[in-house]
Amino acid sequence: MLEKLADSDERQFKALTGVSRKIFGKLLVAFSLCYELYQQEQYEKNKSNRKRKPGGGRKGRLDTMEKKLFFILRYLKSYPTYDVLGFDFEMSRSNACLNVHQLLPILLKTLAYLEVLPQREFASVAELQEAWAEISDLFIDVTERPHYRPGDNDTQKEYYSGKKKQHTIQNTVISTAKRFILFFGLTTFGRIHDFALFKQEFTPGEPWFETFKVWLDLGYLGFDKNYETLELHMPHKKPRKSKTNSNPSLTPQQKEENRAMSSVRVVVENAICGLKRFNILVHKFRNRKDDFEDDVILASAGLHNLSLNLS
Question: Can you state the percent helix, strand and coil of the chain, rounding each to 5?
């Protein structure tokens, strides 16, 4: 497959890997370095039980760094089953699985080395404000993706999302006006409400956002009562129906203000769309390994940020 890739045009290359040739080349240099460091670490850890030096032994199907990087990007982009992935790369399904779980951590190390991974948590308000000192506007939302239905009845209730009417997992996303993802919350059950999840990640009452202009949707009603901001931009909520107001509606001015806010806040939706060009975040997630659902979306966020940096 990799031999045919050399003859593909830019559009086809992106369709197969999710990134441009320019970004692939940038990734390849850093990926090669991180892979060599990984091999050396493994050798030092297990050298008392080894007879070969790093790189020794029979070569597998992925015998170059280019093939290894293409393999893991192809998996994230297309999300094939291990049977299909193994067929495409002429290996068994078990080897396809082993390669995915070996190469994804190295891709994450590569993206960390390139400094494009979003922050996952902050130890203090000062740490957040120092990290984002040059940022003025923060755009906050949640991204949700389908997940297989757990067999355990209590567990499946946790995954069931009333919003999506299916079993899901979700993450809080904070982006800049240029769609760069600054913060990516830990992956959690789809049952948790957007704002409840946010309050778990940023303790209410602390001055986390006092120096920022914050843009939100109506899923964060009550934000102003829990957090201080420089400016808060949130749409007007339609009034409730009552005996005195049988046909509630927003005023023309409120509707115009909502449209204006939506046209600005759409950047966070575009950032989420940038993540979801990797189909592993679109199709129903079926992997069972612990933390794997978190690793793949973090890698996708890093690839999205890298694409922005190099565009």
Answer: 50, 10, 35
